[in-house]
Amino acid sequence: MSIETPCDSGQPLACRVCQSELFAKIVSLPAMPLTDDFVSANEPGKAEFLHDIQIFECGQCGVVQNPFDFNYSAYYRDYQYSSGHSGFAQEFMRRYAGVAIDAFAAANGRQPERVLEIGSGDGAQLRCFIDAGTAQVKGVEPSEYLAGIANQAGIDTEVALFDKHILPLGLGQFDICTSSYTFDHVRNPGEYLSVANEMLVEGGILAIEVHDLEKIVKRAEFCLFEHEHTIYLTPDDIQRLAESAGFKVLAINPVPADCVRGNSLIVLAVKVRPALFVAARKPGGNPALLALNAHIQDLTRRIDQWVCDLPEGASVVGFGAGGRGVMTLAGLQHHGRFKALFDSNYKSNVYLTPKTRIPVVGPEDWKQFKESYCLVFSFGYLGEITQQLIAEGFAPSRIHSLLDFY
Ligand SMILES: [Zn+2]
Hints:
Structural class: alpha/beta
Distance between the termini: 32 Å
Strand order of the largest sheet: 9-8-7-10-11-14-13
Number of domains: 3
Number of helices: 11
Bound molecules: zinc ion
Shape: globular
CATH architecture of the largest domain: 3-Layer(aba) Sandwich
Largest sheet: 7 strands, mixed
Helix content: 25-40%
Radius of gyration: 21 Å
CATH class of the largest domain: Alpha Beta
CATH topology of the largest domain: Rossmann fold
Strand content: 15-25%
């Protein structure tokens, strides 16, 4: 795996959206890992991928971005992350499908018949469309492993990245094009929107979920600045981009806030004209962005301080081996104080976290740590997680949420 840096080839850094040269670096995080690049517990000597993360704001179109292309073909081929097993995630996906179906029906006076999902994983989201009566679904998923699970479960899934190469799958055929945390992984956002437009029928619905840059800035939520994430959008940004690609925005955050994950921005838009992507201008220089790097340093200092201030002899564990846990730990000076990172999707003694080398511990061993303090990184699932920890004997007063530090 590698990062393709334009600097290496002597090229100037260019904006992913409008191709202007990028000058304003707003965040710099040294030696950060990939969120899912766990080190095998049997091979702790093996070096993992570590690279600085640098985030820029475009002075012309205003889009905040990581301009470095991470060469991810090998990574996504093996990518096995799936959040489809939690009851909370299931309920979210049911509602997300519901708002897209309702928006299509309201705009077109009929129920949607064909749904396309980009980055469809193991097919859990498309299953919700089938359960709601959609006749035909199609998934596009770069991970061969996840696409295999989906296909075995009868969810028709193509192993591919979402770019113009998938147009032959059904030009002008789909009623809904949906995605969740995929649009902010693509190299060329204009191409994504144009392709989505071309795959949709007239009046088709584009549903996109990404992380909300406004929340990232407010919380100094640096864990979301990942090698795998290419763009960071505010509600205004995504509206501007969608309109540039022939869509009209119908709703922003149509799913109730208590049903969505930790940092979510959902936009529903309707196709009103053919694709012809031209990036709209919005000058950069947002003062909140200029102060972001200092806010991030303040956040990591406060978490480090909390860890150091725990009572003498107390041990601490983290909860959630997703991107939030892995990246937050990688930004802490005192990550060595964490004795374990809990996650229900993993077994014990198999993985260490990248960079910080903390053992990932599965549910069968949580009891052994019941006297510990626990910092819940995946706070979107805090209710569920707190119940699980209390059932294992953890004291409620020792369970803390990362959200409280934001
Ligand atoms: Zn730009």
